[in-house]
Design brief:
Distance between the termini: 37 Å
Radius of gyration: 18 Å
Strand order of the largest sheet: 3-2-1-4-5-6-7
Largest sheet: 7 strands, parallel
Helix content: 40-55%
CATH topology of the largest domain: Rossmann fold
Bound molecules: nicotinamide-adenine-dinucleotide
Number of helices: 8
Order of helices and strands: EHEHEHEHEHEHHHE
Structural class: alpha/beta
Strand content: 5-15%
CATH class of the largest domain: Alpha Beta
């Protein structure tokens, strides 16, 4: 068996890949030869530059879908469009996500609904639509980007923690339902990664605690992450790439922390 990740001829879709972790994963998969369907919000010109940049740098096909991950019909349509354009989806990475931090009594119901829809239900819709093709071809890789908050909780993140625990549960069910079909389904559980999602939290915490942003990182955030540094998006891309290789074919239904020992306590 060739254990080197080689994704030449494979087609991948990465939700929420216009920024942060999703973009890191899209770059890692494209670097190994996979065609990429990008997805996410953002400035049209910047997204087009990202798409064209991937094609040029890695000599793969890259397309973009503007599907809204809070809307089931748009997700189903995106999966079918990707299959039609590329011929198949071999790798599905469910990564799109948002955050909102508040005590539960003040948590706005609209934020709860949005977080559950984007961070959890979107994975149901994409897997529901992409699995039949994977089963038909007898190969597939599904990677759900959960979080250490899929394994442990923090206060003030009720919707996020509930959604991410849901993602971990969904991952196990899909792994059991596909175990005999050469399809794996795993969750990656990162600790803090310095992306726009976390930059917003740093800014809000600095205001709330009357601290500088550096103090928030050092005194508030890194107290949880024992190696005291942010995980880099490239590290998560490398783990996702490993999960797409033949070497990982027996790893399924797993939730893999990449968290500097956060969840070791
Ligand atoms: P990010 O804000 O940099 O990226 C989020 C991506 O999701 C963007 O591309 C954004 O456009 C997209 N997105 C948001 N709402 C969308 C919608 N309605 N429709 C389509 N796309 C949408 O954040 P990130 O930190 O890279 O987060 C990516 C994933 O990693 C999330 O699921 C997040 O929960 C998870 N995660 C992040 C961290 C961290 O510390 N940054 C840690 C653990 C898990």
């Amino acid at each position: 068996m060739d254990m080197t990740p080689n994704l030449n001829g494979r087609n991948a879709i990465v939700t929420g890949s216009t920024s942060g972790i999703g973009l890191g994963i899209a770059r890692a998969l494209a670097g190994a030869g996979a065609n990429i369907m990008l997805n996410g919000l953002g400035d049209t010109k910047k997204i087009e530059a990202l798409r064209a940049g991937l094609e040029k740098e890695f000599r793969v096909k890259a397309q973009y879908s503007d599907a809204d991950m809070s809307k089931g019909e748009e997700i189903t349509e995106m999966i079918h469009k990707t299959e039609a354009n590329f011929g198949a989806i071999d790798i599905l990475v469910n990564n799109a996500g948002i955050q909102f931090v508040s005590a539960i009594e003040q948590f706005p119901p609209s934020k709860w609904e949005a977080i559950i829809a984007i961070n959890l239900s979107s994975s149901f819709y994409s897997i529901n639509a992409a699995l039949p093709g994977m089963k038909e071809r007898g190969w597939g890789r599904i990677i759900n980007i959960a979080s250490i908050h899929g394994l442990v909780a923090s206060p003030f993140k009720s919707a996020y923690v509930a959604a991410k625990h849901g993602v971990v549960g969904l991952t196990k069910v899909v792994a059991l339902e596909t175990a005999e079909q050469n399809i794996t389904c795993n969750a990656i559980c990162p600790g803090y990664v310095r992306t726009p999602l976390v930059e917003n939290q740093i800014r809000d915490q600095a205001k709330a605690h009357n601290m500088t942003e550096d103090e928030v990182v050092d005194k508030v955030m890194m107290q949880w992450q024992p190696n005291r540094r942010f995980v880099e998006t490239g590290e998560i891309g490398a783990l996702a790439l490993f999960l797409c290789s033949e070497a990982s074919r027996s790893i399924t239904g797993a939730s893999l922390p990449i968290d500097g020992a956060w969840t070791a306590r």
